[in-house]
């Protein structure tokens, strides 16, 4: 009872010293008022709720994504970050409870006879006729406990902050997973597009080679000149060189995909069907408010904001006195046989202390200001993440619509130019068109076909990017 009264008096005194000088908490709420819809699109269902195995239907792509999830090094790094954050939370949690330790000791002491302790020992008998041993042994078993009483919730807030950071690392892992799945899918579609472009180039080389033979025959018949032959020959060589450029791009793209899969160069098994026949995946955009629950980066930013707010409370608690309690209980004797002779060999101690900052308050103020600044940083980062998520979805949805229209027009362009090749060849044979018109028609047709493949690739990638932007892939 006496100790409790004394601690209460010390606590009251400490509060009187520092209470009037503690800065106030200033909290600012995040502005995340999202629009109700994406432009004019309204759909309560969101593809983000689909598992990636349900969203992607190509079996080759599904196997690649599964391999990447198991082997990708960056994803494995995030798992270790989660483990580190989990251990940090455990450390903060353990600081709330008393620390208890046990010590077993053995010692031997010889003091000078002509000292106060030596003279006293020499004139003292432990029992009748048995003086104090010299040298004097010391055997002891001691249990010690130390505890910082969490009066101001400082340790509890630090624990909550560590837990929020742990949850933030989990969301960070989910965000990496979402990006990984999207990157594997986009690279896969890029590889399919290169395969299709390679086939178009090879086909065009055959067409141009046939045209070169016609020009040579025309030249032999005296209906054209050597310049036309050279021009056609140069065009064949130019298109042939494109084949090797595309081959190199295929090698690099395969290796980029192998890197995502966490393995050394290996041929990527893939769909060899007609690329232009692939249909973009159907995507349901949902409503903007669903982003708050579906986007891992938003969840991560929110947890980091919670942790930053708790850090401010922890820093503010440093201005108040800290109450510590220490206690010890043990057995001690100069002879092992006396060690368990109770109560003579028992010793114990208990103490409480109240420490309050006085000289170093400037440093505490600076740390509090830093914690408050980091809280504001986390707040703006959260707002920016939400804004970026909405804009990203809006841009991707717009991209899907515009690419669909562009693909239709480019398909018509390819059909017209393919017909123009036959017309120009017929006109050239009948001397109603010169070789330049034939060359330009073939060149325009090749460019249009390659652009059509590029647009199809962008269409497929756009649906993947919308799925990622909505927060799909990690569930």
From TrEMBL:
Cell compartment(s), UniProt: Cell membrane
* Glycoprotein keyword on record: no
Q: What Gene3D superfamilies does its record include?
A: Outer membrane efflux proteins (OEP) (1.20.1600.10)
A single Gene Ontology CC term:
plasma membrane
- A family per Pfam: OEP
Provide a Gene Ontology MF annotation, just one.
efflux transmembrane transporter activity
Q: Which PROSITE patterns match?
A: PROKAR_LIPOPROTEIN (PS51257)
This protein's source sits in the domain of life called: Bacteria
Coiled-coil regions listed: 65-92, 436-463
Write the record's keywords in alphabetical order, separated by commas. Coiled coil, Lipoprotein, Membrane, Palmitate, Transmembrane, Transmembrane beta strand
Just give the chief location class: membrane
Q: According to Swiss-Prot or TrEMBL, what is its membrane topology?
A: Lipid-anchor
Quote the NCBIfam families the UniProt record gives.
outer_NodT (TIGR01845)
Q: Family membership, please give it.
A: Belongs to the outer membrane factor (OMF) (TC 1.B.17) family.
Name-wise, this protein is RND efflux system, outer membrane lipoprotein, NodT family
Species this protein is from: Pseudopedobacter saltans (strain ATCC 51119 / DSM 12145 / JCM 21818 / CCUG 39354 / LMG 10337 / NBRC 100064 / NCIMB 13643) (Pedobacter saltans)
């Amino acid at each position: 009872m006496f100790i409790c009264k004394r601690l209460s008096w010390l606590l009251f005194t400490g509060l009187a010293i520092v209470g009037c000088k503690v800065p106030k908490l200033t909290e600012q709420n995040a502005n995340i008022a999202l629009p109700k819809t994406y432009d004019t699109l309204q759909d309560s269902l969101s593809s983000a709720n689909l598992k990636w195995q349900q969203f992607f239907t190509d079996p080759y792509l599904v196997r690649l994504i599964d391999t990447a999830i198991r082997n990708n090094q960056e994803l494995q790094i995030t798992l270790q970050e989660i483990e580190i954050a989990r251990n940090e939370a455990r450390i903060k949690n353990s600081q709330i409870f008393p620390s208890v330790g046990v010590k077993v000791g053995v010692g031997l002491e010889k003091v000078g006879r002509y000292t106060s302790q030596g003279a006293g020992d020499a004139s003292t008998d432990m029992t009748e006729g048995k003086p104090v041993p010299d040298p004097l042994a010391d055997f002891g078993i001691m249990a010690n406990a130390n505890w910082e009483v969490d009066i101001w919730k400082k340790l509890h807030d630090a624990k909550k902050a560590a837990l929020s950071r742990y949850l933030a690392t989990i969301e960070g892992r989910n965000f990496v997973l979402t990006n990984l799945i999207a990157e594997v899918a986009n690279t896969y579609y890029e590889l399919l597009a290169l395969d299709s472009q390679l086939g178009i180039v090879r086909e065009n080389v055959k067409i141009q080679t046939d045209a070169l033979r016609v020009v040579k025959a025309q030249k032999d018949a005296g209906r054209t000149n050597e310049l036309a032959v050279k021009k056609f020959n140069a065009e064949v060589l130019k298109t042939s060189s494109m084949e090797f450029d595309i081959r190199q791009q295929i090698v690099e793209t395969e290796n980029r995909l192998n890197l995502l899969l966490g393995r050394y160069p290996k041929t990527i098994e893939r769909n060899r069907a007609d690329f232009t026949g692939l249909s973009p995946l159907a995507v349901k955009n949902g409503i903007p408010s669903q982003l708050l629950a579906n986007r891992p980066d938003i969840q991560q930013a929110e947890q980091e904001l919670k942790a930053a707010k708790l850090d401010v409370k922890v820093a503010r608690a440093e201005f108040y006195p800290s109450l510590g309690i220490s206690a010890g209980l043990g057995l001690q004797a100069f002879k092992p046989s006396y060690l368990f002779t109770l109560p003579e060999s028992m010793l114990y101690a208990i103490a409480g202390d109240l420490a309050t900052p006085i000289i170093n308050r400037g440093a505490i103020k600076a740390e509090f200001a830093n914690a408050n600044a980091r809280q504001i940083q986390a707040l703006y980062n959260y707002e920016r993440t939400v804004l970026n998520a909405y804009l990203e979805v809006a841009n991707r949805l717009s991209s899907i619509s515009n690419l669909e229209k562009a693909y239709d027009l480019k398909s018509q362009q390819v059909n017209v130019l393919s017909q123009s090749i036959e017309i120009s060849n017929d006109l050239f044979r009948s001397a109603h068109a010169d070789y330049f018109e034939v060359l330009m028609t073939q060149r325009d047709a090749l460019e249009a076909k390659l652009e059509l493949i590029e647009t199809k690739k962008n269409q497929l990638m756009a649906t993947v990017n919308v799925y990622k932007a909505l927060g799909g892939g990690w569930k």
